[in-house]
Amino acid sequence: MGGVSRRAFTVAALSAFTAASGASGASAAPAARDLAEPAQAPSRSAAAGMRGMWLATVANRDWPTRAGLRAAEQRAELIGHLDNAVRHGLNTVILQVRPTADALWPSAHEPWSQYLSGSQGRDPGWDPLGTAVEEAHARGLHLHAWFNPYRVATHDDPAHLVSSHPARKNPGWVVPYGGQLYYNPGLPEVRAFVQDAIMDAVAKYAVDGVHFDDYFYPYPVAGQSFDDGGTFGMFGTGFATKADWRRDNIDRLVRETAQRVKEVRPAARFGVSPFGVWRNAATDERGSDTRAGVQTYDDLYADTRKWVREGWIDYVVPQLYWNIGQDGADYAKLLPWWVEAARGSRTQLYVGEALYKSGDPAQPAAWQDPAELSRHLTLAARYPEVRGHVYFSAKDVAEDRGGAMARVAADHYTRPATAPR
């Protein structure tokens, strides 16, 4: 996924991956790969598990292919992605509907997204989210609405926002950082507004899920600090450190959003797809055997392990975007860590898969083997706690560079998909 974060990658997100993956780019060791030879037959649970894909709109990553297409062209492209999900045996599409404090539906709170018309606030002439829900359901797909909570813009000039934008009307809500604009998570009025903007969509549309990615506080940028000292002075009483206060702000967002979703649309599920490393074991003995350059607890102030253990979220999709045997962040080590985190909780565990790396010549040797992703699913099938997989992202599902998605389908998705559970 958190700009997508890993999903329409920002420089910060790419740096996080590079740091977490280690500098060597080593391919998987034979012993690790031997652990995950393709299964002889897919498990019966594979048919009923999550088979999802993210459909990213920020920076027109997946859809629309460019801003300014006619409404009929946008609709046709969207329908094409839904049809492609069905062709590949998937059962869920996670559509990014609020990429930058904007909307892919007629929102009562925020402007139309610039990624539709090319101009923020301009009506595209149709309702993308409403169409997506209707057309997904007609194809037997679940549609989860994906919201980025705090990113306002992928630039740092408020004057470039449409004049009616809430960030223009409430400049005190906004913090420039790393060349982008963010809402300040420490302000109670911001947290309430973000939830109101999200709930506008949840109330209007029969979405099957509400989804956050990995962006809470922004990924760290070297030499810069997120300017919320004044907010901490006003609202941080009782917290030993600013870090503790920041984590509490994000905890509140998650708990409150979960509650409001259940009140308005009880059947909808609320989930998060965090960066794959909560904390390294060298930092915290409860952490994973990794050497990641970013830790969600310490750097994004998101205590994702607690959300799972406490059952605040219905599902979690850690972005395990590394190969088996990867130095510093090994899929085969992170997977059982997340299994243990989810074991005994009410939170269902799905795994975020880096389909976008498959066949990319810039990636380590392991990703040049189209069987790498299939091995991930084979390894995950050993753990009953793993209830499915989500692929980043829709464009890569369609292109299937190197045939990795076809290999996954052949090895694991031979039975027709049913509704995820």
Secondary structure blueprint with pairings:
Layout: H1 11-21, H2 30-34, H3 45-48, E1 50-55, H4 71-87, E2 92-98, H5 114-117, H6 128-138, E3 142-147, E4 151-153, H7 166-169, E5 174-177, E6 180-183, H8 188-204, E7 209-212, H9 229-235, H10 242-264, E8 269-272, H11 296-300, H12 304-310, E9 315-316, H13 331-342, E10 348-353, H14 372-380, E11 386-392, H15 394-399, H16 404-412
Parallel strand pairs: 1-2, 1-11, 2-3, 3-7, 7-8, 8-9, 9-10, 10-11
Antiparallel strand pairs: 4-6, 5-6
Helix pairs in contact: 4-6, 8-10, 14-16
Mean pLDDT: 91
Report the portion of residues in β strands: 5-15%
Spatial gap, N to C terminus: 21 Å
Quick one: overall form?
A: globular
Low-confidence stretches: 2-45
Pfam families: GHL10
Protein name: Family 10 glycosylhydrolase
Organism: Streptomyces violaceorubidus
InterPro entries: Divisome_Glycosyl_Hydrolase (IPR052177), GH (IPR017853), GHL10 (IPR003790), TAT_signal (IPR006311)
Give an overview of the whole structure.
The protein is α/β, with parallel strands linked by helices and 421 residues long. It has helices at 11-21, 30-34, 45-48, 71-87, 114-117, 128-138, 166-169, 188-204, 229-235, 242-264, 296-300, 304-310, 331-342, 372-380, 394-399, 404-412, and strands at residues 50-55, 92-98, 142-147, 151-153, 174-177, 180-183, 209-212, 269-272, 315-316, 348-353, 386-392. The protein has a single domain, classed as Alpha-Beta Barrel (TIM Barrel), CATH 3.20.20.80. Helices cover 36% and strands 13% of the residues. The strands form two sheets. An eight-stranded parallel β-barrel has the order 1-2-3-7-8-9-10-11, surrounded by six helices. A three-stranded antiparallel beta sheet has the order 4-6-5, with no helix packed on it. Helix 14 (372-380) links the parallel strand 10 and strand 11. It is globular and about 55 Å long. Residues 2-45 have low confidence and may be disordered.
